[in-house]
Amino acid sequence: MTALETDPFTGRGSAPVPARLAFPIVDEVSRHCLSDDEPETVHIEVHLPGRPDARRLWEAFGRALLVHSRILVRQAPHRWYRRCYEWELTGTPDVDPVSFAGPGPGALARARARALALCPPLYRSPPVRLEVVALDAVRSVLLLTLHHTALDAPSGLRVLATTAALYGGEGTVTAPVAPVRRAPAGRHRDGRVRRARPARLAPDTAARPTRARAAANGMLQMDLPLPQPDPAADWTVNDQLLVAASLMVGRWNQSHGRPDRPVRITMPVDDRSRDLAMPLGNGTRLAEVPMTPADRTDTPLLLARHPDPAAVTRLLRTTARRTRTLKSPQRTPLGPGAALLTAPLLPVGVRGALTRGARRAVAPWTSTLLLSNLGRVPYPLDFGDAGRARAVWFSAPARMPRGLSLAAASTGGRLHMTLRWSRDLLDDAAGAALARLFEECLLMTYGPRSAP
């Protein structure tokens, strides 16, 4: 049995696609490790200067789902003895994923809380939810929630870009986007970094035993100046974010009496194009970046009350070499271990038990935090009478044992950062303090030409 993708402009079907698709590696691992008290959600916020017409937006989003019919999936019924999970392509939505909230005290805060605590169900198509929140009589926010087992942030942003184009009445869904820049092969190895247990952020919460199950993650958003590195420098904004995050962890742990340990940061790498041919789903591969300085004597200089600028510069250069090396190879999304665990040699129920056991076993070796950087948003996100996006924030899950994620996107010359944490790790006050510390550490990476 097959389903047809339909062009919403011509009404004609295109090449047939399978009615069922086996879960890729990332989807299967995520499915095995789902937990009710730490929902696997991705949230995307698009802030608009105006309010879109409800009916037109509802129609545009529905047509965007038809353009990107890979998003119209639900998990097919399965038994534990089957060899794989499968996505069932439905062709049409099972439920209406769009809702509207009028202006009111705390409307956006409640929508954000739902985005962190409530996953769109996998057994209904599509596994996404779009909430339109009116901030006041003029401004509005589009808040898209994705189940991360099915989709990632770049996929969600691509669907929103198509929605914007259709809402604005464009006859074709195109965007003036630059091709994805693939990193050149690094000429330097990332150095011999001893494999030690990575640092874990020191917990700081006054109410760990009473954490509410309905609010497993906390989140704080930052609107910051976009770093403008010296053109002669060999590091990127992404390298600056990595260094700032590592300084944040080191200084936080030092202030909480934790011994110094090497920081390791998981960094998603996405090689997909950003046009209509972009494959939707979970299309990133994860690279782990060691953040130890090349010269260990730099560590106390970096953690000093006033960090040595020369030591920060050396760490930026070391990080730039490492990220170039890590971005260049084409590797399996989660490494050879995950590929072995998801090979369809055993029933899916047995593989799930093995995957969860392996996750518990390697928990002490899990990286310190996740840093996901979309860079400059490559779409205009122009919603016609509602205006162009003024800010775009997104966040990635922050499950224990890592319990911490940073997400970055830039729009209109501003850097929009989201800090998300597990409430087993931090409470709201500690999360706010950690966000302030990150801002301070990011300033430490600014060169003379990048200061705001």
Describe this structure in words.
Helix content is 28%, strand content 22%. The chain is of the alpha+beta class and 452 residues long. A 6-stranded mixed β-sheet has the order 10-16-15-13-11-12, with helices on one face. The protein has a 5-stranded mixed β-sheet with strand order 7-8-9-4-14, sandwiched between helices.
Please give a handful of descriptors for the protein shown.
452 residues, alpha+beta, Chloramphenicol Acetyltransferase, six-stranded mixed sheet, five-stranded mixed sheet, 10 helices, 16 strands, 28% helix, globular, disordered N terminus, disordered C terminus
Please write out the topology.
Blueprint: E1 2-6, E2 13-18, E3 20-22, H1 25-32, E4 41-48, H2 54-67, E5 73-75, E6 86-89, E7 98-101, H3 107-117, E8 128-134, E9 140-147, H4 153-167, E10 217-225, H5 237-255, E11 264-269, E12 285-290, H6 298-302, H7 309-327, H8 336-341, H9 348-361, E13 369-376, E14 391-395, E15 404-411, E16 414-422, H10 428-444
Helix pairs in contact: 2-4, 5-7, 5-10
Please tally the helical runs, counting DSSP H or I stretches of 4 or more residues.
Answer: 10
Largest sheet: 6 strands, mixed
Order of strands, main sheet, comes to 10-16-15-13-11-12
Q: What's the CATH topology name?
A: Chloramphenicol Acetyltransferase
- Structural class computed from helices and strand pairing: alpha+beta
CATH architecture label name: 2-Layer Sandwich
Oligomer: single chain
Classify the beta-strand content into a percent band.
Answer: 15-25%
Q: What is the overall pLDDT average?
A: 86
Kindly report the name of the CATH homologous superfamily: Chloramphenicol acetyltransferase-like domain
As a whole number of angstroms, the C-alpha radius of gyration is: 22 Å
- Helical content stands at 25-40%
Distance between the termini: 57 Å
Q: Give the ordered list of helices and strands.
A: EEEHEHEEEHEEHEHEEHHHHEEEEH
Poorly predicted runs are 1-15, 175-194, 209-214, 448-452
Report the principal-axis shape.
globular
CATH top level assignment? Alpha Beta
Counting structural domains, the number is 1
Beta-strand segment tally: 16
